[in-house]
Amino acid sequence: MHHHAYLWTGPKPRFDQEALRRPPHPEPPPPGSRPELIQRYREVAAEFPTSDLPPLETAYWLVKPRSLVRGTWPDPAAAASWLKRQLAAYAPRFADGTQRDTGHLATLAASAATRLASGHDSSYGFYLERPAYLSLALVTCTPNRARPNLPCPLDS
Which of 41, 53, 92, 105 has its CA 20 to 30 A from that of 7? Predict the structure, then answer.
């Protein structure tokens, strides 16, 4: 087992495009469906696996382009250390000043290490000034507990 790190930051309106953050339904719309429904399904099916937007379900980071992987570690503590560094780097930009507390950030990193060690993913999101959004995720791989059928991005 190993853990992949993902980071996304961008405008809040782009983050709010939830249709592009959901995997397409396994079955396309049935024949005779409205043309706009068929077109929307095609757009989502084409864009979801290539989009850099954070998926609504953390495990689906694994189907995104391997270029989005920010690091890979077999040790949960090393992956959590990456998270701790990212939190420290972005904390001055957090819109909610109470989230900047270093003790709080250390607790988040420690919690992530514990979750990863037990085979679970860890994902955090923060509103930044402007308004923007920061998404940080550590995803357990080979296999992923929530979605064991998803391939490792490093194998593709």
Answer: 41
